[in-house]
## 1
Amino acid sequence: MPTRNASATWEGGLKGGKGSFSGESGAVGASYSFGTRFEHAPGTNPEELLAAAEAACYSMALSADLEKAGTPAERVQTDAACTLDFIDGKPTITTMRLRVRAKVPGIDAATLDKAAQDTKVGCPVSRALTGVDIQVEATLE
Amino acid sequence: MPTRNASATWEGGLKGGKGSFSGESGAVGASYSFGTRFEHAPGTNPEELLAAAEAACYSMALSADLEKAGTPAERVQTDAACTLDFIDGKPTITTMRLRVRAKVPGIDAATLDKAAQDTKVGCPVSRALTGVDIQVEATLE
């Protein structure tokens, strides 16, 4: 199975310094700073990358789980919101809220919700992010 | 403190389907597929995003920790390698290996190593990825 690589460099101190990251595929890379992470400067940050990773993994995994159950989805869209908060004085990634909209012919809302909750626990990125409270709300389109 | 948003859509089944993701900042977004995730097709995947998130957070956090200790780094570069493996038949993100090179005037290798191991445990993304075995090897430049 694959190993995926990415790099990041930070130069200078926490507040005045600057960072950049890039993935080996060439598809992902940007600069970041104290301002883009902890304040409201425009730009990306690790929490946005985690939200993208969780959303991407979750949409793929729920599609796979529904397919395996004999009710394949036409489309699964996941909006992920990753919150950073200060806990005991330390910046802490507390929650990942997922809002899922799924187009799945022939199933009802309760069946979708059951599948959505199972995928929340079972998908690979969820099983990596066990330090975070992941919450899922799924809606049939 | 901020909440960061990203979205992803998967259309179709696991093997024949296709996905795309994007972050709200506009700095991160790409397509992905079964091939780019589990095989060797060119492109990105959630594991590369996790590697980028960990590398970005770690480089920033080690710089902050060294600054707080009175020995600020000029530069911290982190290469992150995120491995996906099959465990009990399930795709599982098993390890995140970090290779760190740091330019830090006035400290020795043992002091850097101690700081690097502390940051491994303490940085926000490490404390989120508690389902993954994170390993750090740090070198003074």
Note: Chain A has a mean pLDDT of 97.
## 2
Amino acid sequence: MPTFNALPGFRDFYPADCAVLNAICARWRDTARRFNFLEWSAPALEPLELFTEKSGEEIVRQLFNFEDKGGRQVTLRPEMTPSLARMVGARANAMRRPVKWFAIGENYRYEKQQRGRLRAFYQYNADLLGDPSPAADAEIIALCAESLRAFGLTAADFRIRLSDRTLWFLFLGSLGVPETAAAAVLGVVDKIERLAPADLLAAAAAALAGTALDPAKILEAVRQFTALGSLEEMRAFFANRSASDDGAKIAARLADWQTLLDALDALGLRDFVTPDLTIVRGLAYYTGFVFEAFERAGDGRALAGGGRYDALVKKLGGPEMPATGFGMGDVTLRNLLEEKGLLPAAAAAADFHAIALAPECRPALLADAARLRAAGAAVEYALKDGKFGKLIQAAEQSGARTILIYGPDELARGEVRLHDTATRAERCVPRASLTPETTAA
Amino acid sequence: MPTFNALPGFRDFYPADCAVLNAICARWRDTARRFNFLEWSAPALEPLELFTEKSGEEIVRQLFNFEDKGGRQVTLRPEMTPSLARMVGARANAMRRPVKWFAIGENYRYEKQQRGRLRAFYQYNADLLGDPSPAADAEIIALCAESLRAFGLTAADFRIRLSDRTLWFLFLGSLGVPETAAAAVLGVVDKIERLAPADLLAAAAAALAGTALDPAKILEAVRQFTALGSLEEMRAFFANRSASDDGAKIAARLADWQTLLDALDALGLRDFVTPDLTIVRGLAYYTGFVFEAFERAGDGRALAGGGRYDALVKKLGGPEMPATGFGMGDVTLRNLLEEKGLLPAAAAAADFHAIALAPECRPALLADAARLRAAGAAVEYALKDGKFGKLIQAAEQSGARTILIYGPDELARGEVRLHDTATRAERCVPRASLTPETTAA
């Protein structure tokens, strides 16, 4: 006889787990609603090219992709942003801007098998499209922070590290790094904590191949830049450097930083956001302010990440459409909430559990169950008649608040007996007076 | 430049559509909660064998199946019942019975392209496992009916046709059809309305090949059987026939019918359920009472279908576990609700839309927006400062109930101006007094 299990890296959600997932999604939805973001959704299966167009052919290694029975190259989505860009692009001209959308969906990545790495995970995405200003960045970062605070997490639990690929490109330009090499250098910066010194130098040399620049010197300048921990330090850093052609651009960009930080301050989020230029976000499609939310204790795991991606909608066939957004997964968040004792409570048991002490009592039980359910109560009942002791024991174990006992004597009087599962208090009431609020107390 | 679309048969959910889908799912969830069913979920990607084990190799034609990068034969699920059977089977011994579970998930079938045929659709499944009695069938059928009534549909809109594969097998046995041929005959019955007379006869002959039975006579008896429209007619039908060895079994089964119909009567659902033996449910795994919900007008489309499948859990590796359940898709239901004007209303616009008349007013706007959001209000705000006329026009078009106007004069007094988008009434209130309930009226 075969025994079946979920595929490796995939999760079964038994009711207790499903209740937690639903509670997490409900909290995300409520926070997005308060920010007036509208929910959207898209197919979990999409044309493969949608993702290779965005991320390059190398992404295919990480995909659950295949050829469908119609000869189409398709894939389970690894993320929802390309679908978003496709959908917004298709109707951009009819949409009031800014477009503020969020989605919750399952994504799929063929990750190497290791502890804690899943191949299917839920992700909450929020995106604001159609506005290029730091005010839009502030709104998205605020939503990200508030979506974590909604679970009771505080500034002691997580921090949003804020960086800026625009400022990075201006900085690299000021070092003489040509535009064509800048993205590759940022790829090296992304690995700066993970590579051994010799490997780092080799990677920098590879990124700078074809230039006359000294990789060691560039790395040294990069380290000074990534050490800047505040807007004041960033201002001082650029003020101390010889003026470059990009001086005005750098000044304007630092003014954008001021606008963004002021807005986050006004939104009450100063304690949650730290400038941190080590964050560059590996993906080449990010174009401006980028950020990641990390837990502050333990392993410092990433809880969410995002940033500005002003070119993607156009790249996928739509019009010019500046955009910023973030994604937040369910797995790390759930682990953190569990550690902090902040997991939303699972759904409650039924309000009523009804039992019939004789077959002739069952029609009354069923009629009242139907009426209470129609009025909004959650009603369970024993499918079998039987001995009182066994029925009442099962009813008490069910966790229901109140047991409804249908016996011949009570029914003869048009009544039902109520039994409180906590206190075992009992009383009889006329059946007609039963409402979802009725208790035995 | 590439233009991307969703795959054929797949749907994009723009916010208005997503709101309808969410409202449908919310109604399903609430109904299941009132019946005390617990939500579960499972991966959308499963081992291919889970489905071929249940339904045979021929199902593969209809699947989005492929080999993953680890060499596993996998498929997008066409339905959730095998995953349910797998999960319940794995933990059956630790579960209190009956197990009452529901799920809402997207399923995938590689259907031939035709109007109204989708390749991805949402389905609501509810299952009751661990109880073989007609009381359990009644509970599942009641949940199916109430899940449709929850949208405002009445007995004028839909009907549940109730049939019974157990009674069918007893009837076919009384005709002399051997057990080995009975399932094939039911396959013919399933097509009785769709096949031309000659094709039907040929199909019956094929199903009865190897027996000495006359296909035409069997078809004639089948037609008499399927014409029975009530339990009374079923009783009379069997009473008029010569007694067979299965007479006692048939009598017991008709008593089960009585129990089931009495329970549905007590649950207030007599008007919604019609005995109809033409329903046999094509899938061989059904074992007892089966049913389908149909719309009464128009094309009479199927809204839901289900029945008892007592052998599946064991077949997929679990213990003996009687089970009954149903599935209800979103597509037909949504079309019907649309035609009847019963589609749940889409989400409302924001409660507040805030505008700042000068840059120095923005911090106050942001602080109040954050405070109102924290208190539960949905708050939108203009990302740009600008001319009053343009800002107020956009704010009114947003559909928000109340516009919050942050001007220098009001702020100097510690106030904000409220503007009612419906009446254009205005008044100023102290900023500190703003709550989610504040209105301009």
Note: The longest strand of chain A covers residues 99-108.
## 3
Amino acid sequence: MKYPKDTLTIMTELVQIKDANNLGNLHGGRLMYWMDICSAIAASKLAESPVVTASVDNVSFHEPINVGDVLTIESKVTRTFRTSMEVYLEIWVHKDYGKRKVKSNDAYFTFVSLNNEGKPAPLNLELIPETDHDKKLYDGALRRRQVRLVLGGRMKVEDANELRALFFHDK
Amino acid sequence: MKYPKDTLTIMTELVQIKDANNLGNLHGGRLMYWMDICSAIAASKLAESPVVTASVDNVSFHEPINVGDVLTIESKVTRTFRTSMEVYLEIWVHKDYGKRKVKSNDAYFTFVSLNNEGKPAPLNLELIPETDHDKKLYDGALRRRQVRLVLGGRMKVEDANELRALFFHDK
Amino acid sequence: MKYPKDTLTIMTELVQIKDANNLGNLHGGRLMYWMDICSAIAASKLAESPVVTASVDNVSFHEPINVGDVLTIESKVTRTFRTSMEVYLEIWVHKDYGKRKVKSNDAYFTFVSLNNEGKPAPLNLELIPETDHDKKLYDGALRRRQVRLVLGGRMKVEDANELRALFFHDK
Amino acid sequence: MKYPKDTLTIMTELVQIKDANNLGNLHGGRLMYWMDICSAIAASKLAESPVVTASVDNVSFHEPINVGDVLTIESKVTRTFRTSMEVYLEIWVHKDYGKRKVKSNDAYFTFVSLNNEGKPAPLNLELIPETDHDKKLYDGALRRRQVRLVLGGRMKVEDANELRALFFHDK
Amino acid sequence: MKYPKDTLTIMTELVQIKDANNLGNLHGGRLMYWMDICSAIAASKLAESPVVTASVDNVSFHEPINVGDVLTIESKVTRTFRTSMEVYLEIWVHKDYGKRKVKSNDAYFTFVSLNNEGKPAPLNLELIPETDHDKKLYDGALRRRQVRLVLGGRMKVEDANELRALFFHDK
Amino acid sequence: MKYPKDTLTIMTELVQIKDANNLGNLHGGRLMYWMDICSAIAASKLAESPVVTASVDNVSFHEPINVGDVLTIESKVTRTFRTSMEVYLEIWVHKDYGKRKVKSNDAYFTFVSLNNEGKPAPLNLELIPETDHDKKLYDGALRRRQVRLVLGGRMKVEDANELRALFFHDK
């Protein structure tokens, strides 16, 4: 049995010139790379095994991120499924040597637990949501899973009850 | 005036040990990094300006990718909006020194065109879909845009007519 | 006025094959690189300016660190001087996917605050040690500074009162 | 049996600041690195085995290449020998976000096919030149091979009939 | 039996933009990374085995190092102990395309020799100091070792006779 | 006035896993990258200005180079022309922790001196060959220059007197 906080992983990255384009904007793909490593570590803590990225939910970048900014990425597992688990990430940008801190975005990554042969391995650990925020993330995980399955063409819309609730919450 | 094929960008990457975890699986984040560069080049060709990543749609990784595999990433712009444009990517994995070729996944990235001060710049170029595939991508772009706006909390479901068509296509 | 906790910087790094030698041992120099970035960010938060590394105290590596291990580096400023400041770092190794956590080592880095021309700039911020641990670090900072000056040949031993206390604490 | 087009490998690279010197000129060595990877992939497709670089013919860089330019490298096998094969590369520079496209240079790399022990392995595949350009490359391959052998001190000039044709084509 | 000169390792590095912060100052950690590789190679030459970094003595950076500067790092083993050995490094900065050459700093790194299982292995090679400089380094090595042990909390000050000589040389 | 030895540049590189393919063979392109940096530094010392790679002569790789090997690259300018200069490189492989040292290959790179606007700048420095080896390299430089010009299609064979001497030395 584990709590989401047992998987909490905090990563700090200095945005260097090598990470940005000529105008000094951080490449979106570099940020995705860091997000993937940070959430994979969180997933590995839960699974106590190697993991592989299964999917990345829709990610939007609102805040311009520049060379010299410092990023903090925080990730923790929200819910486990049979061999996979969902990780929630929150990304903050610290500008002007920490004088200003703005939220860049949040995201959900999904990972599959692997055995030593690199094959999917069942997750035998129970994850207990603890705080209100944990519980909200836990509850929403089923809905987000259905969005992934429908968008990935692996579930029919009419079977996605949770998804209908997401898009048509008044029903 | 431009055609999608004018923006076609083909990238080939050899999966090296430095790109993979200890089991030899390519990091999902490394693939996202390559996808971002490849689609940013396609977007830049359309905009004839620097661009910055605005969003990444849901991406799923089905096919295991290993050290020694060769990836090809093909990207082209599907449709332009006021200052942003959508890019479609298709990723193929070549295994066993090219003897087997399997589709890894496809994806949609959105970019914003920037002026020299790094501010969003209107796209004054018309993009004309040419082939049937181009037209299908062009038509779907509005729907996917609404998914992004709804998932990003910037549009209400009841205003997302195209989205309803996506999820409830039988209606 | 700031507290040490305002400068706290937490970095997590996955030890990858590219960071290690052929036996899978993390290069000491790669760890030093991460320690430098982490402590520079902490120093920058205090100074609210760019900083440059002035010195690194004696660092010992006891715990073998291997590919697949996860490192956490925590750093915070302990004390400021005229244009320089000392940062304390603590490094932990998480082995077996987080099942075992052992302390790797701790270290002290010193940074100089720079103005926009890249010249040393006075630190006008007061740092107030808050916790007992902060105070202990604050008190020891003078002593460690004298060690640096004596080892660097810039202070005579007979002028290093604090240093004598360090080595001959019974006096 | 294979055609040169079966080995065609197209690589696109964005020239980033990390690839250039302080004046923004792409390092020649970085371009050579990309050319090597691109042509090694083409050779691997032909050999269906790992390969190792045996030689690089004289390469000249005429066109200045700068940060922000996009490079495309196209490579295909021209001819096979017992355990080695020659690959032809063509490098294009796309400037001003694709508005101008200029040829940078072309080059010939030679690779040796390896078995699983890393020893040279005979190439049992026949390569059939298809287009006029393929045939011209195929025919010239013997001549270029003699240049390599003579320049490398492994063949006497008087035995290099093809080479004499290259340098004294009017005879 | 070997001489220090048998382990001499000379490394030249061009300081590139990717190695520096936004003001163009070389990251101290990047320099430490290079120093570690250079001294590890020297130690490996002595031990004829893989080695792992055990400790780094106090390092001070006096001379500002900028993008475009060229660094030379020279390292050689000074003395061996049971399974460990000390390496001396001297770092020079070449500015203005080699017109000015200034000493950046010197340093001492300690390495442990490893066997094929990655365990500490006894050094059975005798190192004979040859020049006056070699002999001075050889003689000082015991003293520096005691500093490391005392600073690392593994030796009591009262047992560190050599150390007393270092700090209280008039006694 | 300068001597070739004034431009001597010695680089040592440890071949790491990230530099090699799956069989542990160093990528030829990685070696070319290092050769380019090393010879560019030598050229910069002569020119006292930034330089850009103009051409690379035919390079053959004979000796297999593996992960764990140590490379030393030595380069020095052989002769100057109006705005360009030729650099000679010699590459050695140190195997088994330095127990065996074998010559990998040698090569010639040509660089153009640049002014601050990045345009070719005349070399006003005289280079005086000093040793017999220097003189041999100096004398051969004209011949090799003609090979480059003929192979690059910028000189007719009948004008290349020195080249004829190279290939038909008995005449």
Note: The mean pLDDT of chain B is 91.
